[in-house]
Write a structure and sequence with these properties.
The protein is α+β, with helices and mostly antiparallel strands. It has 11 helices and 21 strands. It has a 6-stranded mixed sheet, covered by helices on one side. The chain has a 5-stranded mixed sheet with strand order 13-12-16-14-15, with helices on one face. Strand 2 and strand 3 form a beta hairpin. Helix 1 runs antiparallel to helix 2. It is rod-shaped and about 130 Å long. The chain starts with a helix and ends with a helix.
Length: about 475
């Protein structure tokens, strides 16, 4: 066999090799074939070419065919003499080998080198449990030194999520999916599905999960089937979470002073960073605090996912008070509904402790009427003993008040009115029988003593008579 025949055979073999394996490994996958991050490590190796990339093609000792080229919309380069060469999805090294093979029939062992002059923008979309779903563009700059653009300069998954506002509290970060399409030729393409577990990045620092993106990637963040309080709060502290850069609207219903729609603005809870986080306790504070009949053990947070499904988080604020479990004070997101149910039983000891909690109102108003020195509305802390409310109203009127007992009138949650007679002993401690804790809008009625009642009755009788007859005439009637 002549040298020319051997050279022709080698070129043909090279073309066969290039057509069979020169494309990236993922181009051999079936459409939409799911793979793990570990299987997709090869994707991170180098930049791959695509439409609108501008590259410098240099053919050693062939200056007339050396110069800048742009990848066309169909993924090909239109080269002089060699014609159309498909390079989409190839690294610079792979594309150089393909171009060298196309020039091989015209030049003996052509040496082709490629450098990236101007990379195309990376376009990607984000959908699912993300703050601002939609399409995004990431502009990258070429290397002025003519070196290969590495994956380190491409956008990563976490960068994309941050640009889209961050994931929501409903996100399942263990099952994030990236759909990637690769064209094999101007008329053929394949799709791969990469599953990423960003929880491993958050917990173990596994940077392999933070893969780099490619042009045309679609990121789908699914909703978690169930929500975990600890994981929800852990996610809220990550930089890929939808940070509260703007006020959120929530609904608080049930046993709060001001049920309805409320807005949690930044910084209303204090100056520290923790106060900026919209939590359940902050929502209750904005709604005026819990009522005296609130069941803080069975609070529910209801959240609607992007797909319309409603998730429910069970919150136990009593556990927060008793054990300091901060996970119970879960982070809220825009549109959440917080429901505080009614307690079926009330323990006076628990009521006292709840009254001192930050999510209880600072004060309640009660009415003290009758024979006290300063009758009217009195502002007292929640669960204040009845005795202290009387003292806050100036105490008994010593000349007129009935000091042994008072009446307590209370409007119950079911709309009924309860009236009790309470024996007064200022030495009594807080207890439901003799010195009960007060609730908002309670009415304390201090009656008149027997002497005051007799005096008032006598005055009522004698006043009309005195208006008709002067007192002197009355005395004359009795011969005085």
């Amino acid at each position: 066999m002549s040298n020319f025949q051997k050279h022709t055979a080698s070129v043909a073999s090279a073309l066969i090799v290039l057509s069979g394996v020169a494309l990236p490994a993922h181009s051999q996958l079936r459409p939409a074939a799911p793979i793990s991050v570990a299987q997709s490590v090869f994707i991170e190796d180098a930049y791959t070419l695509g439409p609108s990339d501008r590259i410098q093609v240099t053919i050693f000792r062939v200056p007339e065919y050396t110069g800048p080229q742009q990848v066309l919309v169909d993924g090909t380069l239109n080269l002089p003499l060699a014609g159309s060469v498909f390079v989409e999805g190839l690294t610079l090294q792979q594309a150089a080998a393909a171009i060298s093979a196309r020039y091989a029939p015209f030049y003996r062992r052509p040496i082709v080198t490629l450098s990236l002059l101007s990379p195309r923008p990376i376009r990607y979309s984000v959908a699912g449990e993300i703050d601002r779903p939609g399409s995004y563009t990431f502009n990258i700059s070429g290397d002025q030194g003519g070196q290969t653009l590495t994956a380190g300069r491409l956008p990563t998954l976490t960068t994309a999520l941050q640009n889209a506002g961050g994931v929501t509290s409903s996100a399942n970060v263990r099952q994030i999916q990236i759909r990637r399409t690769q064209r094999l030729s101007p008329t053929q393409s394949t799709t791969q599905l990469i599953t990423v577990n960003l929880w491993e990045l958050l917990q173990e620092g596994d940077l392999t999960q933070d893969i780099t993106l490619r042009d045309g990637d679609t990121i789908q963040i699914p909703a978690a089937s169930t929500l975990n309080l600890a994981e929800t709060r852990r996610l809220a502290g990550a930089n890929l979470y939808a940070a509260t850069r703007r006020p959120i609207d929530i609904v608080v219903v049930g046993e709060v002073k001001r049920p309805g729609t409320h807005t949690l603005a930044l910084g209303t809870g204090g100056n520290n960073a923790e106060a900026l986080i919209p939590t359940v306790t902050r929502a209750i504070q904005v709604a005026g605090g819990i009522t005296e009949t609130a069941n803080v053990r069975q609070i529910q947070v209801r959240r609607q996912t992007a797909s319309g499904r409603v998730q429910t988080l069970d919150v136990d604020l009593w556990r927060l008070l008793q054990t300091g479990d901060v996970n119970q004070d879960t982070v809220l997101q825009n549109g959440d509904t917080v429901y505080i149910p009614v307690a079926t039983e009330l323990d006076p000891a628990e009521a006292t402790e709840l009254a001192a909690a930050t999510f209880s109102p600072a004060s309640i108003q009660v009415y003290v009427v009758g024979e006290v020195n300063q009758p009217g509305i009195v502002q007292v802390p929640p669960n204040t003993p009845l005795n202290q409310a009387i003292l806050a109203a100036g105490g008994f009127n010593n000349r007129r008040a009935r000091r042994d007992s008072v009446k307590l009138i209370r409007l119950n949650p079911d709309g009924t009115v309860a009236e009790r007679t309470i024996e007064i002993d200022f030495a009594n401690a807080l207890n439901d029988a003799d010195n009960p804790g007060l609730r908002g809008n309670d009415v304390i009625v201090v009656g008149r003593s027997g002497l005051a009642s007799f005096s008032d009755t006598l005055g009522t009788i004698t006043t009309p008579i005195g208006q008709i007859f002067p007192i002197v005439n009355i005395l004359r009637l009795f011969g005085l």
